[in-house]
Fold this sequence. Notes:
With 122 residues, the chain is an alpha+beta fold. The protein has three helices and seven strands; from the N terminus they run αββββββαβα.
Amino acid sequence: MENTNQIIDHSHQLISSARVEGTPVFDPSGTKLGAVHSVMIHKQSGQVAYAVLSFGGFLGIGSHVYPIPWEMLTYDEDRHGYIADVTAETVRKAPSMALDETDRPREMEGEMYAYWDVNPYW
């Protein structure tokens, strides 16, 4: 009997946001930069705008995370994670937000897109 509460993606082209959260992010050399804490989805277009990257250290109250435009991430099946063509130093210098403020990103989106030199699509 099939479990109707579980959606199975037979095409393997889609992934649940719950499965993206916690996925490792690597630099091009294969060094782990961090993990996807969450993804931010544009309400009107339904497209993922950016990933919120947890980077180094333990994530607790008041910790900071780093938004990175979604188009900068490429999924690598061999690593079971995303590759970002950035260095740890580049991420350290990037705009960050407090972990408890990730649902209020409007104030920093312009700064984030300017830092990564990416234009938002909306």
